[in-house]
Amino acid sequence: MAEASTSTRPGLDTEAIRAAARNLQDGPVTAGYQGDRGAVIEMLNGALATELVCVLRYKRHYFTVSGRENGAVKAEFLQHATQEQDHADMLAERIIQLNGKPDFNPATLPARSHAEYDESDDVQSMVRANLIAERVAIESYRQMIERIGDTDPTTKHLLIQIMAVEEEHADDMRDLLE
């Protein structure tokens, strides 16, 4: 039985992979990364701003909804705020992995966010504002996924994962509409 050399495995040049891996400055970004890192980081920072604005909007709605009859809506707002914060954390982590800097600047959040903040006082206006924001997020993620294509599978997978939760949020908000 012939012994296989590590550099002759079908389809892989293991020696070249090992040599390239010794460049440690780029962390998880290898020489084979095909995405436009600057453009991806810019998109992710826009998504980060969107998620942070959504956290703030849902938190405001959670704290301002009152009345025993609105307990379920209030709980839904809090759950969504927590999930949006999780999305923001995942996006910030991916930006760091791509050797970028997550932009948490509160002064520029509204301008960078795809979704809008909302100061509605009645529950149905809050639900509508959240449904609109979720639909904005879904379409934004869909366009980012399309733009990234197969050039950055990790980011694409992350965005698909987040978009699926945003679709659940939109469905939840639609169910709360009167």
TrEMBL record:
Domain Ferritin-like diiron span(s) in chain numbering: 34-178
Sequence positions that bind Fe cation: 51, 87, 134, 166, 169
Keyword Membrane: no
Example GO molecular function: heme binding
GO cellular component, one term: cytosol
GO-annotated biological processes: intracellular iron ion homeostasis; iron ion transport
SUPFAM superfamilies per UniProt: Ferritin-like
Entry keyword set: Iron, Iron storage, Metal-binding
InterPro entries from the UniProt entry: Bacterioferritin, Dps-like, Ferritin-like, Ferritin-like_diiron, Ferritin-like_SF, Ferritin_DPS_dom
PANTHER family (UniProt xref): BACTERIOFERRITIN, DNA PROTECTION DURING STARVATION PROTEIN
Family: Belongs to the bacterioferritin family.
Protein name (database record): Bacterioferritin
Organism: Rugamonas rubra
